[in-house]
Specification:
About 35% of the residues lie in helices and about 25% in strands. The longest helix is centred in the N-terminal third of the chain and has 23 residues. The chain is α+β, with helices and mostly antiparallel strands.
Length: about 450
């Protein structure tokens, strides 16, 4: 199929596809267990109906693992390849993050609203746009190539049954090319392939100094409170430049793309005058160097604070791991540092609650070159190979279970998307271009 025909057919179905996305956003499919899980069922059945309408053999699956875990609903839809044609696995996820503080949204998070070329709503970009992107490409592309559509339902809660699903349905999922539509573009108007992802590990740390709270006027002085001890310990993780100083963590200063500081500040919403942390190129700090972040701390809220020495405190560290380093080995290095640097011999307890692998794509291949051609054709701009500082551990799982498949990591997000935050949005122009690119890719693979 020539490019003009693909563009024409995408134009024909675009308004319908956008309306479909609006309908899907309206289903609050939050996979966190504290939310109504019947909405996950609604979302899965909605997508399954669309897949069946395209002629795909479709089922909604809640896998049960040997350990007793029951997965959230996933959609598995297939079309057999014609003789001699490859099979392509198209991945996205239909579950979303909680909406956060509703008052911080400019519109209802589950009523998609179009403003200035962007569609706002929870999941509008991450990742319901990916779901509709795949459905549109399947509808438009020339038949012939085999299709396996895998829409997961628990990516936002760590994909706890993902590996079990891959093994149980291995024969159905086996494919020549895997397209994961759950990443970013370099910026609005510039498409990307994601070639590396940092790993992730998360530690819960508890610091204790007393067996009960004490009157701060009577007993402060001979002992520091647990929050102060924890703060001093956390401060040992970085030097004055903000560079991590934990021994055993790999660090790579590699970059092929320039990220102007002014653009980064604007994209991040960095307050005026705040200095950037770390050393080396900005893209290496974002993509290939490790980071350690305090993402939670159990401290007495200020509105109920009293004059007492806090006896113990718990905090959570999230560490992003350099692509190529084992996440569990990095976690061990971080734990060793914490135990060796805890001030005043305070009692410390550490629990590892997450260790997700990194991803490093293989060198260029005919398939990646074809994907770049499709992106360039759709956007009329040269695509950029990027790393992503975030982690998508299941991509490494896919690579391990299907080592012969080529994995292409694409996406429709951009620096303004605010995935997981309030006012999440999708740039509609880039989304339309992504439909064209994927339809071109499927058609060419079928040839």
């Amino acid at each position: 199929m020539n490019t003009e025909k693909v563009v024409s057919r995408i134009n024909d179905i675009y308004d319908k596809t956008k309306q479909d996305l609006i309908e899907l956003v309206a289903i609050p499919s939050v996979s966190a267990s504290s939310f109504d899980q019947t909405q996950m069922d609604r979302s899965a059945e909605w997508i399954a109906a669309k897949a069946r309408a395209l002629g795909l053999t479709t089922e909604v699956i809640k896998i049960k693992t040997e350990s007793g875990l029951v997965g959230r609903p996933a959609i598995l839809a297939t079309r057999v390849a014609e003789p001699g044609k490859p099979t392509v696995l198209l991945y996205a996820h239909h579950d979303v993050q909680p909406q956060g503080k509703t008052e911080l949204w400019d519109s209802d998070p589950f009523v998609a609203e179009e403003r200035n070329g962007r569609l706002y709503g929870r999941g509008a970009a991450d990742d319901k746009a990916g779901v509709l992107l795949h459905l549109a490409a399947i509808e438009v592309a020339d038949p012939g190539v085999g299709i396996t559509l895998f829409i997961e339902g628990e990516e936002e809660v760590g994909s706890p049954t993902f590996v079990d699903f891959l093994h149980k349905y291995r024969d159905t999922l086996k494919s020549d090319v895997i397209v994961v539509a759950d990443s970013n573009n370099w910026k609005v108007g510039v498409p990307s392939l994601t070639t590396s992802l940092r790993g992730v590990t998360q530690l819960d740390v508890k610091i204790s100094v007393l067996d009960h709270a004490l009157h701060s006027g009577m007993y402060s002085g001979p002992v520091l409170d647990a929050v102060t001890i924890a703060s001093r310990l956390i401060a040992t993780l970085h030097n004055d430049a903000g560079e991590i100083v934990v021994e055993g963590l790999e660090q790579r200063d590699e970059t092929t793309v320039d990220y102007p500081e002014a653009d980064l500040r604007q994209d991040m919403g960095l307050l005026e005058g705040v200095q950037l942390a770390g050393t080396g190129s900005l893209t290496s700090r974002l993509w290939t160097k490790p980071t350690i972040t305090v993402i939670g701390m159990d401290v007495t809220p200020t509105d109920v604070a009293s004059n007492t020495l806090i006896p113990s405190v718990k905090f959570t560290l999230s560490m992003r791991v350099t692509p190529g380093q084992d996440a569990r080995e990095a976690a061990k290095a971080l734990e060793k540092h914490l135990r060796e640097h805890v001030p005043f011999n305070a009692k410390i307890e550490i629990n590892l609650n997450e260790a997700g692998p990194s991803f490093q794509a293989a060198q260029t291949s005919p398939t990646t070159e074809l994907a770049k051609w499709a992106l360039k054709t759709a956007w009329d701009v040269e695509p950029v190979d990027i790393g992503v500082g975030g982690s998508i551990p299941f991509i490494s799982d896919l690579a391990e279970v299907f080592p012969e498949a080529e994995i292409l990591v694409t996406g429709v997000e951009d620096p303004d998307t605010r995935a997981h935050s309030e006012n999440e949005s999708l740039h509609l122009g880039d989304w339309k271009n992504a439909m064209v690119a994927e339809a071109l890719l499927l058609s060419r693979l079928g040839e």
